[in-house]
Amino acid sequence: MERKAVVESISRIHQLDTSVINKIAAGEVIERPASAVKELLDNSIDALATRIEVDIMNGGVDLIRVVDNGEGIHPDDLLLAVASNATSKISTADDLFSVQTMGFRGEALASISEVSHFRIRTRTADQTQGLEFEVKTGIPGKPQPCGCPLGTSIEVRQLFANTPVRRKFLKTTKTEFGHISEQFTRAALAHPRLYMVLRHNNKVIFDLPPSDNLLDRLRLFYGSKLAEQLIWVDSEVDDIRIWGYVSHPSENKSTRKGQYLFLNGRWIQDRTLQHALTEAYRGLLMVGRQPISFLYLDMPASQVDVNVHPTKSEVRFRDGQHLYRQLLSTLRSQFLSMDLQSQMSLGKKADFDVTAPPPPLTPEQKQTQMELTSWAKEQLNQVHDNLSDIKISSAPRSVSPTSDLAAPFTAADAIPLSHFQQNREQSPVELPETENEPADLVVPDIDRPADKFADVATSDLRPIQVLNCYIVVENKGALTIIDQHALHERIMYEYFRKRVLAQSVEAQKLLVPLTLEMSGKEAALLLDHAEMLNSFGLGIEEFGGNTLLITSYPVMLKKVNLEQLVRDIADNLDNAKQPSRRDLLDDLITMMSCKAAIKAGQRLTQEEIYSLLEQRHLIDDAHHCPHGRPSALVLSHAELDRQFGRMG
């Protein structure tokens, strides 16, 4: 009877408590510390601030402080600021179709204060003193007079203090701060005229002076190399203007993470416009690569509905097809007016040349170069005794354990093709003979029984290469057509996988580390996984701000574009949806194997063809590449007869 009474009481409809409502709203709006930062930045922008400072402690879990010099909050409205569904941005339902502010739903501060220790200080221009107001996990205090400058300061401490389960779902400090840095970046790009500062653990990450030139701000975030490869676009049709920068086809990414779209100062996502961007680059980019873009849409608020998503990141356009055609036409017209081919030939060399002199430094980079040179000298002094032995034959560097991939492996170790040319040595820093020389064909070598593979080079195996892409073999009454890249990729995958498991990946240290400017989120992801990447022979260290140092690389990838490899790894980590460590390891091994394998279009010698075919018998699955594509197709004698009408 007691259980029945409980069920009946629960099944009855009742109105939720305000605290429960705010916690539900917090679950929708405040997913992680970066979500709170985004909402507070929106409020500061709506308050017409010209300077915004953001202080973060321990990835935003311990402290988020946002200080602005905006209009402030009127003393009579302070209690309403943390009440649910209270806002100054709209008054009637019709206002939802003409929203011109960043925030308008009236739930952000209420949601944040419900799950944290919240304090707000504010003063308006007509007040001689400010007010301070605290809310501890939904329990409001009493406003108190305080001294403070014009504007608003909001502190959020111990986020998710009363929802410990939510805290358990947070990632590492570096990862969470990476998400915060991404939100800060979006706001800074959307409003380049704002003075914005970001600090983490009392360390200045960004100090961005206001600028009327968007390119100056892009250069601060993404470096001069990308900024110099951006193409200006501008189009205005009726009341709709599309403007900004798109990347030259030579600058691209493996995901759409580098595509920024802003609507009336608000960062948004829209699949239709993303598709238009992809179509505009069709034929200019390799399949699977995505352009980089920083595009801005200015249009009347009445032509767009921004109230379709709790975080306001998705919108609904009144005429999305019109925008699609305008963006596609704008980009294609711009590309047709340019000589993209001649530009693409600049810097076309894909090989990573570790001995080539660095490019001329810009004035802004001189200080960084001085610090780097000093650092490199210290490192050289420490390893001076070992500098005489840096060839490919040097002993493998010890690496950290990676027991996550504890699957059996039966393939043998791998060596370069030079194994067939006795006593040939090659330095890992040796320059290729030509600018576009392909990677070495790396194949395994194994002590094997003499009779097991005796038929590899017999007369019935007559391999030939066709179209510089496929190897055709006649064997046992059938034709086998082999994709040379897919087969070699599988060989390299199992070779590299075994090396990672055995903690014996050969790594080559760089005498002068390579510096890379990444976005805040990319840098955080790479540093967060630095230990795992070290097991691949890829040494990554923090240098300051969003600049990383690449100190070593796997010997097997000596001719791969190292900068592009690191950026692709960052994209891979960013695109992963809460994968296990084992999945991440396997994805990275697959990607590196693909880059190390011979490519379609690469001409092979007869010796290389024989050695590649021989390795089919030494790996677990020679029938598919690591991506699942077949590496070989078999055409039987009977099928050939049938196709030629020879069947009786």
Please outline what is shown here.
The chain is of the alpha+beta class. Helix content is 33%, strand content 22%.
Tell me about this structure.
The protein is of the alpha+beta class and 648 residues long. The chain is built from 19 helices and 27 strands. α2 crosses α5, α3 runs parallel beside α7 (173-190) and α14 crosses α16. The longest helix has 18 residues, at 173-190. It is elongated.
List the SSEs and their pairings.
Layout: H1 2-11, H2 18-29, H3 33-46, E1 51-57, E2 63-68, H4 78-81, H5 108-114, E3 117-123, E4 130-136, E5 139-140, E6 144-146, E7 151-157, H6 164-168, H7 173-190, E8 195-200, E9 203-208, H8 214-227, E10 230-237, E11 240-247, E12 252-253, E13 259-263, E14 266-268, H9 271-280, E15 290-291, E16 293-298, E17 304-305, E18 316-317, H10 320-336, H11 340-344, H12 366-382, E19 414-416, E20 442-444, E21 464-466, E22 470-475, E23 478-483, H13 484-501, E24 507-517, H14 520-528, H15 530-534, E25 539-544, E26 547-554, H16 562-575, H17 581-596, H18 606-614, E27 632-636, H19 637-643
Parallel strand pairs: 1-8, 13-16
Antiparallel strand pairs: 1-2, 2-7, 3-4, 3-7, 4-5, 4-6, 8-9, 10-11, 11-16, 12-15, 13-14, 17-18, 19-20, 21-22, 22-23, 23-27, 24-26, 25-26
Please compute the radius of gyration using only Cα atoms: 30 Å
In what range is the share of β-strand residues?
Answer: 15-25%
Assign a percent range to the helix content. Answer: 25-40%
- Helix tally? 19
Terminal residue distance: 83 Å
Structural class: alpha+beta
Q: Judging from the principal axes of the Cα atoms, what is the shape? A: elongated
Largest beta-sheet details: 9 strands, mixed
pLDDT averaged residue by residue: 75
The low-pLDDT segments are 341-359, 383-439, 444-459
Count the strands? 27
